[in-house]
Amino acid sequence: MLVLRRKIGESVVIGNNIQVQILGIEGDQIKLGFVAPKDVQVLRQELYQEIVAENMAAKEQTGQLQQEQILNLLKNYRST
Questions:
Q1: CA separation for the pair 16, 9 (Å, rounded)
Q2: Confidence bin at 74 (pLDDT 50/70/90)
Q3: Rounded distance, CA 35 to CA 23, Å?
Q4: Closest by Cα among 6, 59, 22, 16 to 40
Q5: What is the distance between the alpha carbons of residues 31 and 12, in angstroms, rounded to a whole number?
Q6: Among positive and negative, which fits the CA dihedral 68, 71, 73, 76?
Q7: Kind and range of the H or E element at 25?
Q8: Can you state the percent helix, strand and coil of the chain, rounding each to 5?
Q9: For the chain, which residues make up each domain, given as ranges?
Q10: Among 3, 26, 36, 73, which residue has the fewest nearby CB atoms (within 10 Å)?
Q11: Per DSSP, what are the bridge partners of residue 14?
């Protein structure tokens, strides 16, 4: 992990096109500003983790539905 010290108003650049600027410090919170292309999604980690969990749950549910649908098709095919 790279650790940098920055003052309010200073920035760091990630790659060629992402800039992170320190906007303010209030107590134990740091206010960050991000400049990035529109196709780069910037999310808080806890929100990202929620999205990953929801996607995994949807994937599992979809897999179960597909398996049930296949079994139903086989049952219907055998009964005809």
A1: 19
A2: confident
A3: 12
A4: 16
A5: 14
A6: negative
A7: strand 18-26
A8: 45, 25, 30
A9: 1-40, 43-79
A10: 3
A11: 18
What single letter denotes the amino acid at residue 76? N
- Tokens representing 47? 């929100």
pLDDT digits (tens, 9 = 90+) for 1-36: 999 999 999 999 999 999 999 999 999 999 999 999
Q: Tell which residue, 19, 12, 55, 53, has the closest CA to residue 36.
A: 19
Polymer length of the chain: 80
Write b or e for each residue in 16-45: b if 16 or more Cβ atoms lie within 10 A of its Cβ, otherwise e: eeeebbbeeeeeeeeeeeeeeeeeeeeeee
pTM greater than the 0.70 cutoff: no
- Within 8 A by CB and 6+ apart from 35, the residues are 18, 19, 21
Q: Do 31 and 25 contact (CB within 8 A), yes or no?
A: yes
